[in-house]
Automatic annotation (TrEMBL), chain A:
The keyword Transmembrane is annotated on this UniProt entry: yes
Matches recorded under InterPro entries: ABC_transp_permease (IPR001851)
Membrane-related topology note: Multi-pass membrane protein
Sorted UniProt keywords: Cell membrane, Membrane, Transmembrane, Transmembrane helix
This protein's name: ABC transporter permease
Segments passing through the bilayer: 15-37, 49-71, 108-130, 137-154, 174-195, 227-244, 256-275, 282-304, 310-330
Predominant subcellular localization, coarse grouping: membrane
Region Disordered: start-end pairs: 339-360
Native species: Actinacidiphila epipremni
From TrEMBL, chain B:
PROSITE patterns named among the record's database cross-references: ABC_TRANSPORTER_1, ABC_TRANSPORTER_2
MF-aspect GO terms: ATP binding
Keyword tags: ATP-binding, Nucleotide-binding, Repeat, Transport
Identification of the protein by name: Sugar ABC transporter ATP-binding protein
Pfam families the UniProt entry points to: ABC_tran (PF00005)
InterPro entries hit by this protein: AAA+_ATPase, ABC_carbohydrate_import_ATPase, ABC_transporter-like_ATP-bd, ABC_transporter-like_CS, P-loop_NTPase
Keyword Nucleotide-binding: yes
Sequence ranges assigned to domain ABC transporter in this UniProt record: 8-248, 262-506
Keyword Transit peptide: no
SMART domains linked: AAA
Lineage, uppermost ranks: Bacteria, Bacillati, Actinomycetota, Actinomycetes, Kitasatosporales
């Protein structure tokens, strides 16, 4: 295989553009921060920009992985931010009530309770979507609104601080010279990859999202699949909640995980999973989440005021969505075609094409 | 006697889609004050003709003239302005608005931008009563049954609400397919009134009785070609059905004498009084192992509805089903699949294929659904199975990793067949498996059905082509107007003519 | 010629349960019930003072305006998530132009309204012509305007402009000794205009038609594209107006003003009986939705021991209840 064909093959890979974007973003930092790619060992811990990007991006990656599965079923979960807050609040509450906050058993109990709460949240969403047949956006809106209140209820409206080395390990601690969060993310990513690709879950999810009626007619139990997706998504959000609260050793029911649902959806879309459901790409999602985190870092390092971060993000969302929109591509294509002379109508369903002209 | 001038005259209409001719040189004439049936099976070109006339599709050849003047209609709006209105099968109204608004929306009486509600209701009520209907125009459309909605749509279409010259031509596309007898009467009464007012009506329907009841003349299309224009009184039903179905199927290779194969396996499926309101009247049906039961009937005769009930794709509201001697409740496809029933829908793209998944994944889908998510088909076994069926059914390209959506129609159909064969069903329900696919693939699928039945699989085979049904089936069930009209054991004496007669007249000698 | 026999179609029986006004009546009833509860429980604390009721309008006028805009969008079956950000942005823009640039409020207000309307127009254009989900487009709007807030200033800008001060302090006296603020009066005027537009103009009826069945509306020859874009323009305008009212209410611009207010607006619309799937709803219902959300806050204040987060939980519970009612109603209609 020669270089040219290798290049062509690479360019066609679905991860090509997301990874290129990520590398370009990273490279953009070098002129501003000369040692950007350097990673060094200090006190037995690895430090460096790359490490911190992954560290700070960890909760987002987790939430985005869960969101990928939900979106693949043709749904969406707006309540992940609220679940992040609930899980962090509950865990911190449990830890703070203990006599010995460092006790590993106590911390594990806190984790278990927090994840159990997340599981209940996911089951609730799944119930509304799959059993009662409520539109996912609307169904998860309920928990999005009420969940923040529940989180504040747990913390009594205060910011609960904990002082526990065991607890801060998951979000801020180090293990084998690496941030412990990295291992958690790697574990969850591997777990979800195994869960979807080693079993038939991934295939069934993609079938349900890709063609719901066809899936019903081949006998896929779509309800069960959807409930599982929402539960898994909530669990991921729960772990992210533990991580965020552990990183700052505090739980803030109001602000923890604020807007993370939007970032997560964005990461999924950048990663190449369509919002209409069907094919999903966990790898793409991880890259998408890293892009978002790198964007934040880059904006900071190249001296754009951090406040422009959101504006940037908005522009990225719109560009990504426009590129994904067939209508936009058709219009852009037609405009170009007009300039270069008439082209025959591309083959396809003529009825639809004619119809689109009628409607526009 | 001088013939009156047609209100609409279409001459030599040609329409091509991506190289295939949907209409080749079709002529169509419509006179004022007549009800004209437009007939033909699936793909005959009826709806293409209507869409060309109403400006949805541009014309590739031929002329359209109204009152002797050539017209160029390029959009539905233009058609409306020229006095051509269409009412489709699926009622295009806003269910949430009142009857009055639906009739007049876009043309509401206003003063200084304010809608004059009283005037609006008065006008709507006037239009409604003028056409002999008694309904409350201030109630929402959604609160009325479909039949009334249909009438409201017609009233909107002919209502003179706009500024145009008024409706001269009214096209009714399958308006009666979901109406009961009383409701059809209402519709017919309205049609007669419009006819008396000089409106020319194009009536598309699959119910022969209705055509003989209401229509004056008919135009029959087959494969995009005009095969006849007749006064209704001058063409018997049997001849009409012959015209519609045609007899040009010689291109299919012989499959040998099927009558010698005898299939007297055990009783596999026994349906008794099974039915669904608005779908198919209660019917009895037995299917034995190794038997091919062919369902013959025109489009809309209830053949698909029957098949869907056997699979649990729709829920029945009467009757019962025994599978393998055991009473079963078919609430969802799952219930049927668990008992070894497989179903290939006539709508390949919307109800069969998951176009974004690969050929391999599509083939494995039914088997995997049955195994559940925890037990994936082991990789080695999986590839072997897929390769085997790709080879056996000659799916091209023979690459399991290709997107299924990229395949041709015939190959997609084979993928879906492979999907079900993998589950080794006892009963295979095939709804129009050979429609819209090339001749070669068609013959292969027919051969496959024969060999499957020889191996003991029961098959319910639906096709619009009588010869195909007769060639493959041991038993033929004939459907007519949403009812199972006859069950005949196939034999040398069973001819297409005899089936035609039943389809046409409903009488079984 | 035979006349069609007069058939009495079965509508009476189903009419009651499917009446589109029913959810509004339920909401209004719930409001009265809750208010009665408050009156009974907090009698001694002056709950029945007319001003407590008027304060509902004073404290929630801006929300009412935003929710009215959202009602237009939701009736067409769309959704607008940019409401809160656009409100926040308007407060920042206004504060910045008035305080830092020294422009008079009379000049700033039209600018702010125009910016809001134009933002809505752009989002509507992208939604309709590029067929991207409203959810995503307005989500980008949410990011964008919150970002612009921060670009203007990371800090809160308090307004000391005398005109703003005077307008904010003006009491509109009512019989019985109670009063309303200017913002409350404006919000009620917006409500009245919205009601008129939705029920007495062709544009309003098109909004309902699109929500009922966009495809049908198109085949009936209605200008669907223009109407859809106009609806988002209306929402953008209402958000900006709501932002101005919020500026008066709080007399400052802050990049974190009105975070998540779109959820309150949507919740108010849903609780007010408007179907999220489109086609059915009344702005009067939205008024009651806003009043109920406001009343929850008031009750919690009166209770004293209950904390503010109960507002969110109660809102969620109400949302759930009303979505269930909607679901039951649409399911019945479907059969």
């Amino acid at each position: 295989m020669n270089l040219a064909s290798l290049w062509r093959a690479a360019a066609q890979h679905r991860l090509f553009w997301p990874v290129t974007a990520l590398i370009a973003l990273l490279a953009l930092n070098v002129p501003f921060t000369p040692g950007f790619f350097e990673v060094h060992l200090k006190n037995g811990h690895l430090y460096g920009s790359l490490v911190s990007i992954v560290l700070f991006g960890s909760p987002l990656i987790l939430v985005a992985i869960g969101m990928t599965l939900v979106i693949a079923t043709g749904g969406i979960d707006l309540s992940v931010g609220a679940v992040v807050a609930i899980s962090g609040a509950l865990a911190c509450l449990v830890v703070s009530k203990q006599a010995d906050q460092d006790s590993v058993a106590g911390v594990l109990l806190a984790f278990a309770l927090a994840l159990a709460a997340a599981l209940v949240c996911g089951a609730w969403n799944g119930l509304l979507v799959a059993r009662l047949g409520i539109q996912p956006i609307i169904a998860t809106l309920i928990l999005m609104v009420a969940g923040r209140g529940i989180a504040q209820l747990i913390t009594s409206g205060q910011i609960i601080t904990v002082n526990s080395d065991s607890y801060s390990l998951i979000g801020g601690g180090y293990w084998l010279a690496l941030p412990f969060a990295l291992f958690v993310v790697a574990f969850v990513a591997a777990l979800s990859a195994a869960l979807t690709r080693r079993t038939a879950l991934g295939l069934l999810i993609e079938a349900v999202g890709g063609n719901a009626e066809a899936s019903r007619l081949v006998g896929i139990r779509a309800r069960r699949i959807k409930v599982m997706a929402y539960v898994f998504c909530a669990l991921c959000a729960g772990v992210a909640g533990l991580m965020i609260s552990s990183n700052v050793s505090a739980a803030d029911g109001n602000n923890a995980g604020l807007w993370i649902e939007l970032d997560a959806i964005l990461a999924v879309v950048i990663g190449g999973t369509s919002l209409s459901g069907g094919r999903f790409h966990l790898g793409g999602t991880v890259v998408g989440a890293l892009i978002i985190q790198t964007l934040t870092t880059t904006i900071y390092t190249i001296g754009v005021p951090t406040q422009a971060n959101l504006v940037f993000k908005a522009v990225v969302v719109i560009i990504v969505c426009l590129v994904q929109s067939p209508a936009f591509r058709a219009k852009a294509f037609r405009a170009r075609a007009k300039r270069s002379g008439p082209v025959p109508r591309p083959p396809g369903t003529p009825a639809d094409a004619a119809h689109m002209e009628v409607s526009s | 006697m001088a013939e009156p001038r047609p209100v609409l005259e279409m001459t030599g209409i040609v329409k091509e889609f991506a190289g295939t001719r949907a209409l080749s040189g079709v002529d169509f004439r419509l006179f004022p004050g007549e009800v004209h049936a437009l007939l033909g099976e699936n793909g005959a070109g009826k709806s293409t003709l209507v869409k060309v006339l109403t400006g949805v599709h541009p014309l590739d050849g031929g002329t359209v003239a109204m009152d002797g003047q050539t017209v160029h209609i390029t959009s539905p709006l233009q058609a409306q302005q020229a006095g051509i209105s269409t009412v489709y099968q699926e009622v295009n109204l806003c269910q949430n608005l009142s009857v009055a608004e639906n009739i007049l929306i876009g043309h509401e009486p206003v003063r200084h931008g304010r809608i004059l509600w009283k005037e609006l209701r008065r006008r709507a009520a006037e239009l409604v009563t003028r056409l002999g209907l008694d309904i409350d125009v201030s109630a929402t459309v959604g609160s009325y049954p479909l039949a009334v909605q249909q009438l409201v749509a017609i009233i909107r279409a002919v209502g003179d609400a706009g500024t145009g010259p008024g409706t001269r031509v009214l096209i009714l596309d399958e308006p009666t397919s979901s109406l009961d007898r009383g409701e059809v009467e209402q519709l017919f009464a309205l049609m007669r009134r419009l006819k008396a007012q000089g409106v020319a009506i194009v009536f598309i329907s699959h119910f022969l009785d209705q055509i003989y009841e209401i229509c004056d003349r008919m135009t029959v299309l087959r494969n995009g070609v005009l095969v006849g224009e007749h006064p209704v009184a001058g063409l018997g039903r049997v001849d009409l059905v012959k015209l519609m179905i045609g007899k040009d199927l010689d291109e299919l290779e012989e499959l040998g004498e099927h009558h010698t194969r005898h299939a007297a396996g055990d009783l596999l499926l026994h349906a008794e009084g099974l039915g669904r309101t608005g779908g198919i009247a209660p019917f009895d049906l037995d299917v034995h192992a190794g038997e091919v039961v062919g369902l013959a009937g025109l489009l809309g005769s209830g053949r698909t509805e029957l098949a869907r009930l056997l699979f649990g794709a729709d829920r029945s509201d009467t009757g019962r089903v025994d599978l393998d001697g055991r009473r079963v409740t078919l609430r969802a496809p799952n219930d049927a699949i668990g008992r070894g029933v497989a179903f290939l829908s006539e709508n390949r793209r919307t109800e069969g294929l998951v176009p974004d998944l690969t050929v391999r994944e599509n083939i494995l889908l039914a088997l995997q659904a049955a195994r559940g998510w925890t037990r994936p088909v082991p990789a080695s076994q999986r590839d072997e199975l897929v390769a085997k069926y790709i080879a056996a059914l000659d799916i091209r390209p023979a690459d399991p990793e290709v997107r299924a959506g990229a395949l041709s129609g015939g190959n997609q159909q084979k993928v879906l067949l492979a999907r079900w064969l993998l589950t080794q069903p006892k009963l295979l329900v095939l709804d129009e498996p050979t429609r819209g696919i090339d001749v070669g693939a068609k013959a292969e699928i027919q051969k496959l059905v024969v060999s499957l039945s020889e191996e003991g699989m029961a098959v319910v085979y639906i096709s619009a082509e009588l010869e195909e049904v007769l060639r493959l089936s041991h038993t033929v069930a004939v459907l007519r107007d949403r009812r199972l009209a006859a069950r005949i054991v196939n034999g040398p004496d069973v001819t297409p003519g005899r089936i035609l007669e039943i389809i046409a007249s409903g009488e079984h000698r | 010629m035979t006349t069609i026999s007069r058939v009495h179609w079965k509508t009476r029986r189903t009419r009651m349960s499917q009446d589109r006004r029913l959810p509004v009546l339920v909401t209004a009833g719930l409001f009265v019930l809750m208010f009665g509860f408050g009156a009974f429980r907090y009698q001694a604390y002056g709950f029945l003072d007319g001003q407590v009721f008027m304060n509902l309008f004073i404290d929630n006028g801006y929300l009412l305006v935003a929710a009215v805009g959202a009602t237009f969008v939701i009736i067409t079956g769309g959704i607008d998530l940019s409401v809160g950000s656009l409100i926040g942005f308007t407060t920042m823009l206004t504060a910045w132009l008035v305080e830092k640039q020294g422009l008079p409020l009379a000049a700033v207000a039209p600018i702010a309204l125009a910016v809001g309307a134009f933002a809505g127009y752009l989002m509507g254009y992208v939604i309709h012509h590029f067929e991207i989900e409203p959810f995503i487009v307005t989500l980008a709007g949410l990011f964008f305007f919150r970002g612009l807030c921060l670009v203007i200033s990371k800090e809160s800008i308090s307004i000391s402009d005398p005109t703003v001060d005077r307008l904010a302090q003006t009491h509109v006296p009512l019989p019985g000794g109670s009063f309303l603020s200017i913002a409350a009066v404006v919000s009620l005027a917006v409500l009245a205009v919205a009601f008129y537009v939705l029920h007495h103009t062709r544009f309003g009826r098109r909004v309902y038609a699109i929500g009922g069945n966009e495809q049908s509306a198109l085949l009936m020859g209605l200008p669907v594209a223009g109407t859809k874009i106009a609806v988002y323009t209306v929402s953008g305008f209402c958000s900006a107006l709501s932002g101005l009212l919020f500026t008066l209410y709080i007399q400052s611009g802050d990049p974190l003003h009105a975070v998540g207010l779109e959820l309150d607006a949507i919740a108010a619309v849903v609780v007010g009986g408007t179907l999220l799937t489109g086609g059915s709803g009344y702005v009067i219902g939205t008024l009651f939705g806003v009043l109920i959300l406001g009343l929850i806050k008031t009750l919690i204040q009166f209770e004293g021991t209950l904390s503010s987060w109960w507002t969110k939980i109660a809102t969620g519970v109400l949302l759930f209840a009303f979505i269930l009612i909607q679901r039951a109603m649409t399911a019945r209609r479907g059969t």
